[in-house]
Amino acid sequence: MSRMTKQENSWVFYDWANSAYSILITTAVFPLYFKAAATEAGLAATTSTAYWGYANSFATLLISICAPVLGSIADFKGFKKRFFTFFFALGVIFTLMLAVVPSNQWLILLICYMLTVIGFGGTNIFYDAFLVDVTTEERMNRISSNGFAMGYIGSTIPFILGIALIILAQQQILPISVSIASQLAFAITALWWGLFTIPMLKNVNQIYYKERVPHPITNGFKQLFETVKKIKLYRSLFLFLLAYFFYIDGVNTIITMSTAYGSDLGIDSTSLLIILFVTQVVAAPFAFLYGRLADKFQAKRMLLVGIFIYIAICMYAYFLKTVLDFWILAMLVASSQGGIQALSRSYFAKLVPKENANEFFGFYSIFYKFAAILGPFLVGFMAQMTGNTNSGVFSLIVLFLIGAVILIRVPKATDIPQSSSISR
């Protein structure tokens, strides 16, 4: 396979650009910064945690509900790039706002954060849908995997810079407070996200579209209702989404619960950050590898390989006792985390009618967002019932098994009807 085209390379670099947000704002720095700001303002720990949960839930719910409608409108000529640019600008501007809002203004910080969540989530809907425009079906597995791999690599650089600033401030090596160091980390994230999105904005355009019609918003709603009414014609596509809902719930739960799980083992926060960093580094080459193997052995087979590796992870987690065990578990996660997400994206991109890609990736976004409910509840319930966190992680096997069984029943992409073959 030849090297990437300018369009493919520009698309891949957006993963490099936005992954800084995922690790610094969503996972590592801003949650701790917000908790400290809320505590300093006099909020109880339980209250600030509740507000944090409400903010995440509301922002995620809002973008998830709007996703199919926005996607349906974006299928008309010229709208996809506009929507991508709008949500990208929203995300970057309000990430930068996190760096300038005073740390004692916890409510303004939380509102700005919610807008970054909407911007980040909204942009990803159209970014994922652009995969059909930048490459061919034969190259989708590799290009999607390259994106995730570049994301893992790209995220480590601003992560190192941000964490280094905070640690140096804590050690009083830098003459700044930890609060200012955190704000600098947010500024780095916004600048990194903005700078490396420029190739995407310049070189990637909508190739597959429907011609514009009068009142595109009204017609977007009509198209969405038509798709829902004709859902039986897309049975195989939604069967894949159902499988995806279950196995990606397991993947996301392991990611989101990993810090709490490590803490239960007595691992300190500094060690957890180091493990998180190493996991990002190791995940990159494995994401590349999954893309190459999918071209050779088919994407569905590699998705099943990834699912069964996660089943093995859940089984190993049941016997977890030491820090070394946690390191081994983290490396097992790194071996398949990016690959299973990348191939899910490319497999779905092959299933969707290309001129309706935005609408269907809106549904994809809904299934991804709502696949963050059952898994954490299952882990919490089983851990509480048994008094053992290991049992909670072990219970996730159920989600992976259900996902695998449904995925096996999904036919090849060539069996999915394209919208051009369906009378409207």
UniProtKB/TrEMBL annotation:
Pfam families: ATG22. Keywords: Membrane, Transmembrane, Transmembrane helix, Transport. The keyword Transcription regulation does not apply. Residues 236-424 form the Major facilitator superfamily (MFS) profile domain. It comes from Neobacillus paridis. It is found in: Cell membrane. This is MFS transporter. The keyword Oxidoreductase does not apply. The chain crosses the membrane at residues 12-34, 54-76, 83-101, 107-127, 148-168, 180-201, 237-260, 272-290, 302-320, 326-348, 360-379, 391-410. The lineage of its organism: Bacteria, Bacillati, Bacillota, Bacilli, Bacillales. It comes from the Bacteria. Its main location: membrane. It is a multi-pass membrane protein.
